[in-house]
Amino acid sequence: MLKAAILGCGGIANTHARILTELEDKVQITALCDIAKERAVGFNERYAKNQATVFTDFTQMYQEAEIDVVYICLPPFAHTNEVQLAAECGIHVFIEKPIALSMDIANQMVEAVEKHGVKSQVGFMSRFGAAVERVNKRNGDYIQKRRGCVCNRHQWRHTWEMAQRV
What are 122-148's pLDDT values in tens digits? Predict the structure, then answer.
């Protein structure tokens, strides 16, 4: 059973949590973290049957919870060292795009993942891009297809100060 954590319990995290609950025979949500504790508590009720441990500090979550993979669902401006610390703890990482607002921070994330040998993936929808089309032609049904729609109306997306580098 894969033990999953979600860091950032708003927006797109609902989609990830819903999909993880559909995989209940393979994945268990063991930890939830958000700076607004009530959001993490709500996720625990909705998606983890109150079985996950709730945190407001991801450092504490990484150290105390049983986690194989963390889904990092933070707004771009909120990224700090959560990827690097997860890698140091041997926790695999799924992170929403963009992973960082500067190349320096992005490179630090990549270096940490490579150094500690954890797997990582960026949630970047490019299923109709040229590279994906070439892979599909070469490998047939190798890539799983999942269809969905997400409407993002987060306040920070409409504020130049917060969204200018996204």
Answer: 887 666 677 777 877 877 655 454 544
* Residue 81: other Cβ atoms inside 10 A: 15
User: Is residue 161, in this structure, part of any structural domain at all?
Assistant: no
144 token code pair: 């799983």
Please measure the distance between the N-terminal and C-terminal CA atoms of the chain and give it in whole angstroms: 35
Q: Please give the residue range of the domain that contains residue 70.
A: 2-125
Tell whether 145 is covered by a domain: no
**Strands (DSSP E) along the chain, which ranges?**
2-7, 27-33, 53-55, 69-72, 92-96, 120-123
Residue 156's contacts (CB-CB under 8 Å, 6 or more residues apart) are 75, 77, 162, 163
Spatial distance between the Cα atoms of 39 and 53, rounded to a whole number of angstroms: 13
